[in-house]
């Protein structure tokens, strides 16, 4: 990853922070994009863009272009920005479906569309999306979230077909990620069977690397320890 310029969206979240740290440790330069505000000064290796609403295509394009200008190029985009809601179909709010679609599908779509010209110029462009195992077969209360992540899966496949030979596009499909928030919401679960952010980051960064040049259109389950 030495010298690669990678945009990470949702970079200030539990998974995003680990991906950023791991990528920096491997020698990459990172444009960190998040909805949360940030006032961290730019360095040679890290450029943080806070307060970015990726559900707005124009805002997403401005942020991606700013990252490209700052570093002079873009080699990879890792779309981690997203959201989760647990709500039954019968008793839930229809607005939840709109919110999940906006947070999970539109953020990835808007960032990807903005990044495509820059990634194509790289010669080794990569897009890595975050899908979900739960979108393969939705359970009770998972309708809105699973439907939106299924949209991410289809977006990944469509982009991979459209950009084949120019940019690779893949998605990782985590099961439950071992985060503080997930432990708090499921205190009786066996945390040892969950996938850790570090394990997931390793797979994501492989797909963003030169070593994954022959992989595109893949929906890769990351199950943890069964």
From TrEMBL:
The lineage of its organism: Bacteria, Pseudomonadati, Pseudomonadota, Alphaproteobacteria, Hyphomicrobiales. GO terms for molecular function: oxidoreductase activity, acting on the CH-OH group of donors, NAD or NADP as acceptor. PROSITE patterns: ADH_SHORT. This is Short-chain dehydrogenase. One of its GO terms (biological process) is fatty acid elongation. It holds the Pfam family adh_short. NCBIfam families: PRK05653.2-5. It comes from Bradyrhizobium retamae. Belongs to the short-chain dehydrogenases/reductases (SDR) family. Transmembrane segments: none annotated. Signal peptide: none annotated.
